[in-house]
Amino acid sequence: MVTTYLRTSEQHSITMKYEYFKDWNNYLEFLLNALAMTYSAMTLKNHIDHHYIELGVVVMFLAWFNFLLQMMRFKHIGIFVVMFLHVFATVGKCLVVFSVVFVAFALSFHVLFRAPNNLKNLTLLSMNSSVITDCLPIINQLNTTISISLELQPFQSISLSLFKTLMMMLGEYEHTPTIIEPLIRQNAFTLHYPIITFFFYTTFVFLVPIILMNLLIGLAVGDIENVRRSAVQHLISQQVYWLADLEPKLTGIFRSRLYKSQWRKKTKKNTTTVFLDKTNVPEMTNEETMIQKYLKEAVTK
């Protein structure tokens, strides 16, 4: 079955030629096929490790996402898929621009909440007695993160600081263990820069979760009617493109079975009218013409 599917995909790419590479859905299918074949090869060789599990998760996600894209061809369901992709693209463009603000706050919090964790910092602190006094609760526990609260540990590294700031962007502030307890010295960690820390923390709360998130929501669903109208137009164009691509691939025998040289239409008088294809109908004789004329007059009466 997999071989048949791969042959069909290859024939599809050969038929479309350069048009095949203009649709990003084809790149997704190509990546999915490559990863699925790699996963199958690892399964046959019984090569099961962490990479095997991770690859399986990626293949499963891409398969279901590709199934979502295939639903776009259906009339009543496809419009919601198109709207989802449109909103996703809009939010993605905005996040690319506002990611600069996100990185700026993440790096600032990393510097403000970072605790000294090496002997070099201890040597520098020994030159200033006032700094030693402020840092005294934590000096005896350098080179460890046990004394630092769980909420402050992510800010000790840049990567986790980015992730922690992202979670704060969604509403997980946890200001009591992050700001209040270090400020009143209820734990070993001391808030060394209270004024600038309060300023950046308050600015982050108003700028990112309130202004930025509401802006993204407004861009996503504010102009929903235009999004729906453009989604309908895009859906129609996708269906026309799919049908135009499918029609030449049907074989002559299959098309000949579907083709009807005549079709019937019932009128209100329960009479049946037969419409013939003029290309396949031979010329009528005089006798047949007279009979047809007589039948028409009888129907009109």
What does this structure look like?
With 301 residues, the protein is mainly alpha-helical. It contains twelve helices and two strands. It has a two-stranded antiparallel ribbon. Strand 1 and strand 2 form a beta hairpin. Helix 2 runs antiparallel to helix 3, helix 4 (75-112) packs antiparallel against helix 9 and helix 4 crosses helix 10. The relative contact order is 0.07. Residues 17-230 form the Ion transport domain. It is a multi-pass membrane protein. It holds the Pfam family Ion_trans. GO terms for molecular function: monoatomic ion channel activity.
Q: Mind describing the biggest β-sheet?
A: 2 strands, antiparallel
Portion of residues within helices: 55-70%
Arithmetic mean pLDDT? 72
Summed up, the helix count is 12
Distance N to C terminus: 63 Å
**Beta-strand percentage range:** under 5%
Q: Low-confidence parts, pLDDT < 50 over ≥5 residues?
A: 136-146
Rg computed from alpha carbons, rounded to a whole number of angstroms: 35 Å
Feature tags:
301 residues; mainly alpha; two-stranded antiparallel ribbon; 12 helices; 2 strands; 69% helix
Brief summary:
This protein is mainly α and 301 residues long.
